[in-house]
């Protein structure tokens, strides 16, 4: 079955109204196609901006922290409490990056706090934090805390990410709060209004659209540029920085095998069955994913607005879709076929 057919079937089944799919090696785009619509009305295209949700963690917050480590402004083994008011004095920056900090997965502070400052304070003083280094628990709070550390060091998190990461890589259509752009794929309805250019994630939305866990909007051409930098670091990162980020930091710790930011590939993951054991990636709640396979010099990107139809009900079907797309792309590209 072709990529076209897999995508068209999912659109007809209303998994999402549209999807953009791409693949690249370290030097050039190998595949890029747009399917369906933004909202059942407007035709989709390669430049469509998607709410990439938790891909924000590995395309905004992670690279910002890695860049500061690379330039010697912070260290992975610095204490979080060296930079911000925090619950304990034992949690290190690498604990936040690898989801071994002991922070719970999420916070309901957005439901009872009204300002950005109040929400961030609640997260920094989280009462249900466990000791670090004992278990891998995926937590959006880790990356919100990392954002506040970057903010403390640089003075402005959003500006630092824009200047040091996005603009340096030519990702000119990537950033927070793109409300003035016409080609944005909407996600879900909040307070009676269809979200378009505002984060689907509740914490990122309540933090004013700028957060370390979610909130970035991007398109396929920009994310292909980012993937190429990870495959062949030369503009923003050193080779050693990327090697360190994808090291197996959580070996021997209960839970998922993770690098810094990245989850390591398994044959049952959303990356499908045909990536190498050294592959790593991340997904986004809205229907996005990025998988990078340095052994095969390949990255695969999927951008969709799954939340347009339903937020929680069809996540298993989205997993199946991602796997089928990855399997077909890897197979076709390796055999010289048209995907």
Descriptive tags:
339 residues, alpha+beta, Beta-lactamase, six-stranded antiparallel sheet, three-stranded antiparallel sheet, 11 helices, 11 strands
Task: Please provide a written account of the structure.
This protein has one domain: 3-Layer(aba) Sandwich (Beta-lactamase). Helix content is 34%, strand content 14%. The chain contains 11 helices and 11 strands. A hairpin with a 3-residue loop joins strand 9 and strand 10. Helix 1 (3-12) packs antiparallel against helix 11.
Summarize this entry quickly.
Helix content is 34%, strand content 14%. It is of the alpha+beta class.
How many strands, which pairing sense, and closed or not: the largest β-sheet?
6 strands, antiparallel
Beta content comes to 5-15%
Number of strands: 11
CATH architecture term: 3-Layer(aba) Sandwich
Q: Name the CATH superfamily classification.
A: DD-peptidase/beta-lactamase superfamily
Task: Give the low-pLDDT segments.
Answer: none
- Tell me, what's the shape? globular
Strand arrangement in the largest pleated sheet: 2-1-11-10-9-8
Output the structural class. alpha+beta
Would you state the CATH class?
Answer: Alpha Beta
Distance between the termini: 9 Å
Number of domains: 1
Number of helices: 11
């Amino acid at each position: 079955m072709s990529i076209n057919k897999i995508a068209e079937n999912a659109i007809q089944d209303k998994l999402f109204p549209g999807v953009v799919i791409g693949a690249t090696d370290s030097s050039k785009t190998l595949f890029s196609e747009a399917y369906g619509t933004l909202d059942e009305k407007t035709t989709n295209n390669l430049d469509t901006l998607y709410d990439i949700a938790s891909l924000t963690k590995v395309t905004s917050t992670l690279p910002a922290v890695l860049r500061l480590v690379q330039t010697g402004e912070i260290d992975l083994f610095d204490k979080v409490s060296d930079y911000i008011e925090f619950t304990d004095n034992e949690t290190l920056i690498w604990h936040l990056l690898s989801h071994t900090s002991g922070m719970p997965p999420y916070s309901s502070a957005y439901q009872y706090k009204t300002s950005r400052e109040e929400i961030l304070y609640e997260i920094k003083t989280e009462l249900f934090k466990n000791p670090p280094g004992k278990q891998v628990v995926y937590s959006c709070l880790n990356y919100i805390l990392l954002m506040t550390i970057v903010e403390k060091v640089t003075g402005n998190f959003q500006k630092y990410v824009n200047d040091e990461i996005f603009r340096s890589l030519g990702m000119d259509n990537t950033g927070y709060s793109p409300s003035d752009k016409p080609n944005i794929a909407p996600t879900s309805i909040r307070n009676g209004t269809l979200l378009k250019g505002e984060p689907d994630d509740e914490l990122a939305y309540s933090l004013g659209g700028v957060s370390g866990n979610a909130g970035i909007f991007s398109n396929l051409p920009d994310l292909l540029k980012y993937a190429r930098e990870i495959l062949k670091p030369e503009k923003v990162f050193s080779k050693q920085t990327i090697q360190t980020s994808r090291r197996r930091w959580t070996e021997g710790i209960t839970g998922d095998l993770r690098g810094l930011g990245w989850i390591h590939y398994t044959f049952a993951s959303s990356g499908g069955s045909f990536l190498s054991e050294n592959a790593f990636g991340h997904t986004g709640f809205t229907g996005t994913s990025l998988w990078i396979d340095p052994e095969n010099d390949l990255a695969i990107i999927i951008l969709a607005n799954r939340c347009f139809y339903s937020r929680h009900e069809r996540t298993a079907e989205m997993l199946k879709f991602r796997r089928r797309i990855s399997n077909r792309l890897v197979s076709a590209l390796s055999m010289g076929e048209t995907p």
